[in-house]
Amino acid sequence: MKTLLWLIYEALSICFIGIAVLLFPIRIVYKRLTSNNSPKNSLWIGIPIITLALKAKAETLLGTNAKSLVYDTYFITNNFDYNLKGWVSIPIIGKLTSLVTFLWICLWSDRIHMYMDRGALLSRKPLQSDFRELLIYRLLGISIFFWTYGADVRSSQTTKNLGEPNCCTECSSIGKACICDEQTRIQHLVKLKKYATAIFSMGDMIEYTPGSRNDLFFWPLDLFGANAEKYEPIYPRRISTETIRIVHAPNHRAYKGTHFLIEAVKRLTDKGVPLELILVEKVPNEQALEIYRSADIIFDQCLIGFHGYFALEGMAMGKPVMCYIRKPQEYLIHPEECPIINTHINTLEQDIYQLVGDRDRLHEIGIKSRQYVEKYFTMDAFAKRLKQAYEDLGISV
Fold first, then answer.
1. CATH match for 2-220+380-392 among 2.30.29, 3.40.50, 1.20.58, 1.10.3290
2. Domain ranges of the chain
């Protein structure tokens, strides 16, 4: 049955792609009629991670009509401009949603932002785009920007070449969680470059995207918007007799080295060190943030080699963050100012022990963490970097 449905979808895809080509003169007329003093239409589409919507919102600060669109949502957030989950979930005809969305993009968009693994059209190949879709966008004059999030670019050979520990160290989802196969990654990247206006990468992801632009650091936080109170800083207290609380959000335990943290904390508590470990799993973002506020220390990961968005949220709330950063000088924005406590699986227990005994240091790191995020990861800060990238590429905002 699934094979039949895919065959039907494939046949319809060909029809809709043909229709998209026929839309070219209509698109020209539409764009000319709406071009006078009208902002550029920019669509952000892809997997439903929270930063997708935030990047779109940040782009609106440049005067662009930017929208975010997803076909599904995770438990973390559903805060997107267009959430088509209800339509996509309709049996049999649900797949038509992507085809209609594709035609709308062809008519409406001036530029489209997507992750490296898919666009509007569905693909039977996991973590790979439909290149016919990209070809149509280019023919219609739509700028195509690719962004990375991790699984869409990581392959096992390149990962292992980085040294231990790494994403593959404890992974049990080979061929499922990431691209994994080296040749598949390389071939896919070569094809994407043919259609890309630009590819943006950061952190450890730059290891997999040679030729990408790596200075946008595209995980903004809405620190000063309508919901600014959710990131109100609560710094670790200098003087307290309470147990030190470490908070960790192991949504992907195999990639974050969760068990190393659990074991290190247990060894320390067995020695009488006043520690408490809180694990936050499968919790909506708003609820998770409430727990983060209670932390004295935020632990991000000790395998990947780069911090996640969770670390930035913790820093925004004035929390010291522990994380393994493999190449600080290459992976971080202004590394000389970054207060992340760079830990390693071999030194994790010792690093935690030293922090527990120095509450003054925890407080000071918390203050520096908030300052760092305010300086480099606000919506405004990201919007300025995006504007600079557009200008460098000769693209009007």
1. 3.40.50
2. 2-220+380-392, 228-376
Report how far apart, in Å, the C-alpha atoms of 150 and of each of 35, 176, 304, 379, 393 are: 36, 13, 10, 21, 24
The packing angle between helices 96-108 and 131-139, to 10°, is 20
Same topology for domains 2-220+380-392 and 228-376, yes or no? yes
CB atoms within 10 A of CB 111: 21
The HSE-up count of residue 378 (CA atoms within 13 Å, CB side) is: 13
Q: At what angle do helices 2-22 and 24-33 cross, to 10 degrees?
A: 60
Please tell me the distance from the alpha carbon of residue 339 to that of residue 316, in angstroms, as a whole number: 12
pLDDT per position as a tens digit, 276-294: 999 998 888 788 888 999 9
Q: What is the CATH number of domain 228-376?
A: 3.40.50.2000
CA dist 316 and 233 (Å) reads: 7
Q: What confidence tens digit (pLDDT) does each residue in 39-73 have?
A: 999 999 998 999 999 999 999 999 999 999 999 88
> What is each CA distance from 125 to 130, 184, 188, in whole angstroms?
9, 11, 11
pTM: 0.92
